[in-house]
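To fix ideas, we reproduce below one chain and its tokenised fold.
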Amino acid sequence: EIGGSDELKGAELTIFNDKNEVVKKWTSGDKAETVTLKNGTYTLKETGGEFTVGDKTYKVTDSTVTFTVKDGKVTESKVTAGTVGKITIDNGKNSITVEDAFEEKKTEEESKDTDVTISKKEIGGSEELEGAELTITDDKGKVVEKWTSGKTAKTVTLKDGTYTLKETGNEFTVGDKTYKITDSTITFTVKNGEVIDHKVTEGKVGKITIDEENITVEDAFEEKKSDDEKKDEDEKQSDDEKKDEDEKQSDDEKKDEDEKQSDDEKKDEDEKQSDDEKKDEDEKQSDDEKKDEDEKQSDDEKKDEDEKQSDDEKKDEDEKQSDDENKSDDENKSDDENKSDDENKSDDENKSDDENKSDDEKKDSDSDSDSDSDSKNDSKSGSGDAKTNDSSTSDGNDNDSDQTGSGAASTSNPTTGAGGTIPAMLALASGAVIIFAKKKDDEE
């Protein structure tokens, strides 16, 4: 045992190898146990239960020791200390000591039970309350004492330990009062005649109090009423219910009225909103129609303006084209007149030259004729101007000069000498120019 010198009999011990296999198991005796082990690692534990020797009860130690032996010696060791007892090892001596804690059994004179007084009362009452069932259980839930309260308090003698008291019956009636079971409980510990600790768990009904070794359980109750009280209570309840009903009805009516008013206001608001929306829609539609009409009118005006502008532009273009054509005609007419003047001038010049030449030729001819009148016949040549409508060439082709346009102009084609060409004046009609020419083949 702890602090002892003698061997303690009755303890079971076991040695395990490193594979947790049992190598040796024995129960301690008057002498120490010697165990022969091969090289290896082992663990020693106390494996039995509590045991009693004389007036002492020994508790099994939860400490262990692991050690290694080699060549007959303990070379290494480790103690795992527990909460109960202890183990020591001396490697040099190959010695292990296991010490157990113990509780010494007390004699009747030394041990004293605890008397606990339990009183049952109504809340605030001073007298004991009969008819309540109460139960005491130990720390393992085992019923130690159960009873029904009477006219005096209950005294229970308890051994050292921890206990719980609770009211376990149903509600009960005493006189005109009905008592409800308390759901509060108390757990307390007694030792050597005293309550050394306690804890009250309060519930919703009733209560439990403790003063040293005196515990009081108090129950709540409902008092039974007389017929008159019951009638008054019923009437009051009826009045209260009627009042509540009236208030509820009033509230419902007010609610209905408020809802109706709210509905009417909502309806008016909806109608007003509908009217406003309709008015807005009509105004919008009117605006849209006016906008469409304005846009259509604007489009029509633009179309008319475009058409008028197009007509004006076309008219200006036509007038410009007509002016250009008239200008071109005037220019052409001017060119033709200039050309005609040039041609007339050329014709006059040619005519003058031809007349001069003709006179010379005639003179020569007359001279030749006087000198050689027998070798040749007279050579005739037209003298003076002759007006004709035909122009003949030596190749036998005839060119007709007809009247053109209004007021045709006739052209005189004079006869020229050999190889001469006389341009004739042209008749001008409808912008067309016709040129007549007369050629005379060389006869000599």
